[in-house]
Design a protein that fits this description.
This protein has 89 residues and is an alpha+beta fold. The protein has three helices and four strands; from the N terminus they run βββαβαα.
């Protein structure tokens, strides 16, 4: 299962306020953020916290997925996203 083939639609690179969400599912009010190594410095972490707070205030749940998890365990990541969607619909 990939998000492009997922029966519940996700959109890529969605502008939300002054932020851009990596993947957004409006039906589930779910944002999936893909995190690489650049997300672990203090400045990026502060920005991510502010973005998450904004998105949550607008009714979305934000989940973060490491790029390395996608590379090593794509099936597990897809199952995780599926569980999150199903829990919110």
């Amino acid at each position: 299962m990939y998000l492009r083939n997922y029966p519940i639609k996700f959109k890529r690179q969605v502008v939300m306020g002054r932020y851009i969400a990596d993947f957004s599912c409006n039906a589930a009010k779910l944002i999936v953020e893909l995190d690489g190594g650049g997300h672990y410095n203090p400045e990026s972490q502060k920005y991510d916290e502010e973005r998450t707070k904004f998105l949550e205030q607008n009714g979305y749940k934000v989940v973060r997925v490491l790029n390395s998890d996608i590379d090593k365990n794509l099936r597990g990541v897809c199952e995780f996203i599926n569980r999150e969607v199903r829990a919110r619909i």
